[in-house]
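Late entry, written up from scratch paper. The run itself happened at the end of the previous shift, but nothing got recorded in the book at the time, so transcribing now.
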Amino acid sequence: MDPLSIAMLAILGVLIFFMFRNSRKRKAQMAELRDQMVPGVEVMTNFGLFGTLISNDTVSNSAEIEISSGVIIKVHSQTLAKVVVEEEAVEGAPRSVEEAMEIANREAAERDSASDSSEPATQPEFGEVTDTKATEPTEAKKASE
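Output as recorded:
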C-alpha cells in the first residue's frame, strides 16, 4: 500500500472513533438528564416554557407540567430540555440587561470625564478629518520615491 492510502485509512479511523465517542457522550448526558427529571423539579421545554414537573410517564412518553398554580399542561417527554437550577449570583455581576447597561453607561461617563480633564488627544477620533496628515507623504510613498 502506498502512504496516501494508509493516511486516508488512518483519518477514516480517527473520524469513526470520534463519532462513537460523541455518541456515547450524548447518551450519557441524556441518561443524566433523565435521572434529574423527577417530579417537583423546575424544568424548561424545548419551546421555552418553564414549569414544575408534576409527573413523567415513560410508557406513554408524556409529562405533566404545572406552569402556574392550577394550570397543568401535558407535553411529550422529549420536549423537556433541561432542569432549571438556581445559579449562585457572582458578587458585582449584573442581574439584568438594564443593570448591565447602567454599569456600562456609568463607566463610559467616567472614562469621558477622565479624558476631558487630561490633555487633548494627539490622534484624531474615528471619522475626524485632519489636514496635517493629508499634506505629509506617507512612509510608503517616501520609500517608492
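The longest strand covers residues 50-57.
(Scratch paper discarded after transcription.)
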